[in-house]
Amino acid sequence: MNAPRIAPSILAADFSRLGEEIARVEQGGADLLHVDVMDGHFVPNLTFGPMIVKAIDKLTHLRLSTHLMMTDPEPFTEAFVKAGSDDVIVHIESYPDPRSVLAKIKGFGARRGLTLNPETAFERIEPFLGDVDVLLVMSVHPGFGGQAFIPEALHKVTRALDLKERKAYRYEIHIDGGIDLETGPQAARAGAEVLVAGSAIFKAPDPRTRVEEMRKAAIGKR
What is the CATH classification number for the domain harbouring 102? Predict the structure, then answer.
């Protein structure tokens, strides 16, 4: 297996100096940026829309993986792609049959992503895994940063990797929530290919160094 990629979650950054924050994680070797969009309805928090994603895109050359924690994100998917999102990830809880929205995301030219909450059974998402480019496993309840890692999420990661290998699926396995120097290696060992981390990186004394530390720690456990 290749070394896991590191995706700093931009919501944990200091937005008063966002360009500097992004530059620091880029210098540390971040592979992509994770962008959380919340609508205040699907989750009890509100963040931002395509305008901010467009601003972030102007500050970086890194791939933007945009996670839409929204009750009905389909009408907004084109706007997020045009703003610079390279991945657009929607929730199975929002669309019990997500094939239509996934097809639209692909048609707009972005990678199709699907995610599920910790309480959602893996079986709910399994029928659609042949139609996605990104599978995001949530290891906390979405909506707020700084939550404790839910270890049961690792079983979903392992199942996702097994299916990917057995059925020759092409999705990239991401994990998001409570990822740090301790849980990141656990997730990598279970099969996660992209480690999404917010507070563990941006709240560290030196985010640049923390990105390097997270990758080294994860490699050591594979």
Answer: 3.20.20.70
